[in-house]
Specification:
Largest sheet: 5 strands, mixed
CATH architecture of the largest domain: Alpha-Beta Complex
Number of domains: 2
CATH topology of the largest domain: Conserved hypothetical protein from pyrococcus furiosus pfu- 392566-001, ParB domain
Radius of gyration: 23 Å
Structural class: alpha+beta
Number of helices: 6
Length: 207
């Protein structure tokens, strides 16, 4: 006896870029330059989510908007996006989910963004990954768009007990053997971040 194939509750389909209709309300703002840069670097890797009841998108509005602008600007077809016979772009979307009411659709739009924003980081692990990135490929580190101040805040916020007797962060200029440096006297000078994971120093941003 042949077992009937299982009907997947969610599946990936490709639909025309211009045929995708955004939700009527989406309060999340988007860093479109960063989204477009990520798509150019890594391809389109996170499909848009469609609400089958309304036919509108529930998640991925920023990624969709970024693709619309990239298409209008005549950019090459990103990896993960297909080119239709008429030259239009086909983007992957997740199908199979249906809201029960407009209120549920609104709630999910907020929830999918809020859950991600509310979650914290394992700062010790993140610091190690960032140091590995800046050492292995500075351009990939720069694509994360961390500022010096963000790096300082991130590492200073790491729990002290996670690093034993070592300080969570040490910021020093590149002054060789001169130990008389005062942060207040050289705010414009180069700064190095000491990774709490391994103790190595590195410049947070590279031009």
């Amino acid at each position: 006896m042949t077992t009937p194939p299982v009907q997947a509750p969610r599946w990936i389909a490709y639909m025309p870029l211009q045929a995708l209709t955004p939700a009527t309300r989406n309060p999340k703002l988007h860093e479109l330059p960063l989204i477009k840069a990520s798509i150019r670097e890594h391809g389109f890797v996170d499909p848009v989510l469609i609400d089958e009841r309304t036919g509108r998108s529930i998640a991925g509005h920023g990624r969709h908007e970024a693709l619309v602008e990239m298409y209008a600007d005549g950019e090459p077809v990103p990896d993960g996006v297909l080119l239709d016979d008429d030259g239009s772009w086909l983007l992957p979307v997740t199908r199979g989910w249906s809201s029960r009411t407009d209120a549920e659709a609104d709630a999910l739009i907020i929830k999918l963004n809020r859950i991600t924003a509310q979650a914290d980081w394992d700062r010790r692990m993140l610091a190690g990954m960032l140091e590995d990135l800046v050492t292995a490929d500075a351009s990939l580190f720069d694509s994360l768009a961390y500022t010096d101040d963000e790096m300082e805040t991130l590492l200073r916020a790491a729990p002290a007990e996670a690093f034993g007797e070592e300080p969570a962060l040490a910021l020093t200029p590149d002054l060789g053997d001169d130990t008389s440096f005062n942060d207040d006297d050289n705010e414009e000078g180069p700064r190095l971040v000491r990774c709490p994971t391994c103790g190595d120093q590195f410049t947070p941003r590279r031009s």
